[in-house]
Amino acid sequence: MSQTLQSLLIVAGVLFVMLTLAALLIWVERRMLALWQDRYGPNRVGPFGLLQSIADMIKIFFKEDWIPPFADKTVFIIAPAIVVITVLMSFAVIPFAPGIHVIDLNIGILFFLGMSSLGAYSIVLGGWSSNNKYSLLGALRGSAQMITYEVFMGISLMGVVMLTGSFSLVDIVNAQQKMWFVVPQILGFVIFLIAGIAETHRLPFDIPEAESELIAGFHSEYSGMKFGMFFVGEYLGVTLVSALITTLFFGGWLGPSFLPGVVWFFLKTFVFILFFVLLRAGLPRPRYDQLMEYGWKFLLPLSLLNLLITGAVVLYFKQ
Amino acid sequence: MFSSLRSLWIAFLHMFHKRETIQYPEEKPKLHPRYRGRIVLTRDPDGGERCVACYLCAAACPVDCIALQATEDQTGRRYPEFFRINFSRCIFCGFCEEACPTYAIQLTPDFEMSEYKRQNLVYEKEDLLISGEGKYHGYNFYKVAGLAIGGKDKGQAENEEPPVDIRSLLP
Question: ipTM, 2 decimals?
Answer without folding.
Answer: 0.72
